[in-house]
Specification:
By secondary structure, the chain is mainly alpha-helical. About 65% of the residues lie in helices and about 5% in strands. It has ten helices and four strands, in the order E-E-H-H-H-E-E-H-H-H-H-H-H-H. It has helices at about 20-30, 45-50, 55-70, 90-100, 105-130, 130-150, 155-175, 180-200, 205-225, 230-250; strands at about 1-5, 10-15, 70-75, 80-85. The strands form two sheets. Strands 1-2 form a two-stranded antiparallel sheet. Strands 3-4 form a two-stranded antiparallel sheet. Strand 1 (about 1-5) and strand 2 form a beta hairpin. Helix 6 runs antiparallel to helix 7 (about 155-175). The chain is elongated and about 65 Å long. It starts with a strand and ends in a 15-residue tail after the last helix.
């Protein structure tokens, strides 16, 4: 421990980083900067321990830090080793979801945030879209049409939710702004879990199919506006669509005061 002077002149304790944290920091930096790439295998523990001048327990503590961040995969046994992996967005999304739940964040709050992010992404996508973007959106719509044509039963409800959210993901990913794409992905898990709960609790399959067909028509309309590069109309249309969906998703027992629940 070392001390530092705070703004009011008093002394406060500052914890010095542990050796394992310093090692994790160096390896993390090499992974983030691309010196170590996904799929690369780190040298054996004895070699790394010698390079860093640390014991095996300290090195393994550093590995645990990086493994919790999904930056490495540690395989045990005679054929084991430490392999660099790509960061898993799902891990970050779970942390964000837990933070929202522990903060008492309501579902209405989450939906409101999406209504700020997605229409803005739609505007960018309409301005920048390529033929590849349009093909991806149209392919997703075609998959949804196929599901509805076959009828929605049982596990197909989950397939519908996954495919519908792929359309939303495409909007965020192809808008051309990586920050928006990451933020959209972080909120996706919370909203998709809630949507799945709403759909599964509905016993009226005819009404579900009617809603799905309405959703497909909205998706088709949006793609046509994006294709026409009508950014103003696309943004306005999508904001209206998301507003209607939010109201239906938060209706009744899923009222606006409902708190995010990842363990429902």
């Amino acid at each position: 421990m070392s001390s530092a002077v705070s703004t009011d002149g008093s002394q406060r304790r500052v914890r010095a980083p542990k050796t394992a944290e310093l090692i994790a920091h160096q390896l993390r930096s090499e992974i983030v900067r691309g010196i170590l790439k996904p799929g690369d295998t780190l040298p054996p523990e004895l070699v790394l321990g010698s390079q860093f001048g640390v014991s095996r327990p300290t090195l393994r503590e550093a590995f645990r830090i990086l493994e919790n961040e999904s930056l490495i995969v540690v395989r045990r046994g005679s054929r084991g080793g430490v392999q660099v992996s790509s960061p898993d967005p799902a891990v970050a999304a779970r942390h964000v979801g837990l933070l929202l739940q522990m903060s008492g964040t309501t579902l209405a709050d989450v939906y409101e945030a999406r209504m700020v992010l997605e229409p803005a992404a739609v505007r960018m996508l309409a301005q920048r879209r390529t033929a590849v973007d349009l093909a991806a959106l149209n392919s997703c719509v075609a998959d949804l049409k196929e599901l509805v044509a076959a009828g929605i039963e049982g596990a197909d409800l989950d397939r519908w939710s996954d495919t519908a959210f792929r359309f939303h993901d495409l909007i965020m990913e192809r808008a051309g702004n990586q920050t928006l794409a990451v933020l959209g992905g972080l909120l996706r898990g919370v909203v998709s879990a809630h949507m799945g709960t709403v759909v599964r609790r509905s016993a009226d399959h005819a009404e579900i199919l009617a809603q799905f067909r309405k959703t497909i028509r909205s998706f088709v309309k949006l793609v046509s506006l994006i294709e026409a590069k009508d950014a103003d109309a696309a943004e306005q249309f999508w904001r209206g669509h998301m507003s209607k969906v939010s109201k239906s998703m938060l209706w009744g027992s899923f009222a606006t005061e409902s708190v995010v629940d990842l363990f429902n």
